[in-house]
Amino acid sequence: MSTPLTIIGSGMAGIGLLRALRALDAERPVTLITADSGDDYSKPLLSGGFAKRLPPERLAARSALRVAEELNVVVRTHTRVEAIDLGQRTLRIGEERLPWGELVLATGAAPAIPFPVAEAIAGRVFTINDLDDYRAFQGALAALGRPGRVAIVGAGLVGCEFANDLQAGGHEVCLVAPETAPLPRLLPEPLGRALGEAFEAAGMELALGTGTTALEAAGADVGLVLDDGSRLEADLVLVATGLRPRTALAEAAGLAVSAAGIQTDRYLTTSAPGVHALGDVACVDGVNAMYVQPLQASARALAKTLSGTPTPVRYGPWPVLVKTPLLPVVALPPENPPARWRIEGEAGDFTALAESEDGRLIGFALTGACVRRKVELARAAPPLLG
Ligand SMILES: Cc1cc2nc3c(=O)[nH]c(=O)nc-3n(C[C@H](O)[C@H](O)[C@H](O)COP(=O)(O)OP(=O)(O)OC[C@H]3O[C@@H](n4cnc5c(N)ncnc54)[C@H](O)[C@@H]3O)c2cc1C
User: Fold this and answer.
1) The domain that contains 9 carries what CATH number?
2) Backbone torsion region of residue 308, taken as left when φ is above 0, otherwise alpha when ψ lies between -120 and 50, otherwise beta
3) Is the CB of residue 212 below 6 angstroms from any atom belonging to ligand 1?
């Protein structure tokens, strides 16, 4: 019989691996352990649910019970792994010591809030990184009994998608960020400004170029203290200031980790034999992508490796589709800052090509009607982990 496999984490990485593995090996004993409900859901749908007023149940494709039945796996929900013993090959869960044969860490990444939040307003300040967070925020919005005044801190992919979605859902949205234009890591400034203009034209308020230094109580409101000395007030605040890979378990066990995640090679193997990592927690050959396409490529490759055919992962070119219907955006950001951006277009329809010193295409960004060029340009761009 093949070595039993234990997977920690039931996000798209953990369940994606399980599904890919079952396509190759129906029999191997697998245990899936997760700190949450174990519901199988697509995280990208979370930032599209408020416009459609989707209850959390509608976002979960199947329950943990169905995952267990359909994928022939033991699922342990609401179970937090507290430590990994590499020598004894056991997991510590409370008083229990659970043995493992091969281990996969798919523990994801956690929101990082870079400023203090007063305790009194904790119930009015949110991050949304899983279905439970979505449920909690939706509940707080519903409890207002009227459209909310929502301040979103952070203008990256998650902040911009929720801004667009909540605005479309009838709420009053103010987007606050220190950068001067939205999506600073995905778009060159003129394209970011075009997205900002589309947001403003739809009635959203933008407070860009201002960092948030603290969140405080302001009567029934939350007060945002900004670094230019001004203040903003909102019913609820959604903080979207980035994610940090959950590396604590791995680090305490003695695995090689960095701020970018658990270090793995192209085979998704960590510094310990028989221990693998994938998804938002993994830094694969120096790259932690934190997107679905690389995670799916990792799941397929690792499933083959675990089934006896060692397979290095290749990401290929993977343009990011930002779900901002007010102005569609597709971006394949260059790995290193380009020598120049060649930008063409007008009125929200832009093509920006990132070029190296010798004129090679190393990335691109598209907005509006130009997003239709994504396939053609993705073919021409260099693959990441090719
Ligand atoms: C709002 C939003 C929109 C997004 N939209 C897109 C998009 O359009 N396109 C795209 O490519 N990407 C998108 N992403 C990113 C993408 O969704 C993530 O890269 C992906 O879902 C990460 O999956 P994961 O399984 O690695 O981590 P997670 O989903 O975070 O799962 C981690 C799992 O580990 C478990 N866990 C953690 N610690 C422990 C422990 N100690 N013991 C037991 N279990 C533990 C958790 O309970 C959870 O089940 C979006 C992200 C967000 C937040």
Assistant:
1) 3.50.50.60
2) left
3) no
